[in-house]
Design goal:
Length: about 260
């Protein structure tokens, strides 16, 4: 695992946009897993800028979003589908048929999960999974549990995850769905490359546990330690505890700019 500590959140966003843009230039038909969340907003802004500068071609790319709330439609302002339109899809030449989102209004969510997995398999699997991390260590919406599910499935959201997402529902916790569909940890770990982003002091403790603590389903992001190609991009506030690591398998670098 390679960890890069950047001076601030904006530099994290730009570094990940550069990495993704370069992958798209090298392999224009790349298949991406994409996150939502506040941390990813500056990343999408930087990626759109790169796209506009001709350095992140989306014409042949396929994307698969990590998760979606159940009971929320793609036109609902709180949905991750709306988030993606606002922050990425409206600004790049990604073809509509290649934007894969889980449908939160599916009559049979488990069938929807299976459909999503089939579409991902048809696309050839994930080349790059870009992830955020929840304050409780979730990736996608794989919440801490005694056991985790490998493939896309329905989850019950933790109270802390519902609180963290209330901003999408005008701050009204009662409106945040209690269940979601999420890519499973097996699907995420199947990506050839995983990029994890975390910024801000609020992520400091969970970043330390996820990267330096034991691999445990209590911290789903810790499973990434078992993946052969993970790049973690953090700002100083989130990464301050990592610098004292003596772990040989965790290579810490400070970004030059
Ligand atoms: C959200 C999403 C996750 C995201 C995480 C981080 O709830 N379901 O996919 O990575 O939580 O969110 P934030 O960046 O807002 O802290």
């Amino acid at each position: 695992m390679r960890v890069v500590i950047h001076p601030d959140a904006e530099r994290v966003a730009r570094a990940i946009a550069r990495l993704v843009g370069q992958r798209l230039q090298a392999q224009p038909s790349s298949v991406l897993a994409l996150p939502t969340g506040r941390t990813a907003i500056p990343f999408y802004r930087a990626l759109v800028e790169r796209h506009q500068a001709g350095r992140a071609p989306f014409r042949r790319v396929s994307t698969f979003n990590l998760d979606e709330f159940l009971g929320v439609g793609p036109r609902d302002a709180g949905s991750y589908a709306s988030y993606m339109r606002e922050h990425l899809f409206a600004h790049v030449d990604l073809q509509e048929g290649r934007r894969h989102l889980l449908n939160g209004l599916a009559a049979d969510p488990e069938r929807e999960a299976a459909r999503f997995e089939r579409a991902l398999a048809r696309a050839g699997g994930l080349d790059v999974a870009v992830l955020g991390i929840g304050g409780n260590g979730h990736i996608g919406f794989n919440e801490p549990a005694r056991g985790l599910t490998a493939r896309t499935h329905v989850v019950r959201l933790d109270a802390s995850s519902r609180r963290a997402n209330a901003y999408l529902f005008a701050g009204r916790l009662s409106r945040v769905p209690s269940r979601a569909l999420t890519m499973g940890v097996g699907t995420i770990l199947g990506a050839r490359t995983v990029v994890l982003m975390a910024t801000g002091a609020g992520k400091r403790a969970i970043v330390r546990r996820a990267l330096l603590g034991p691999v445990t389903t209590d911290v789903p992001a810790s499973l990434l330690q078992a993946h052969p190609d993970v790049i973690v991009m953090v700002d100083r506030a989130a990464g301050v505890d990592l610098t004292r690591s003596r772990r040989a398998d965790v290579m810490i670098e400070r970004a030059r700019t």
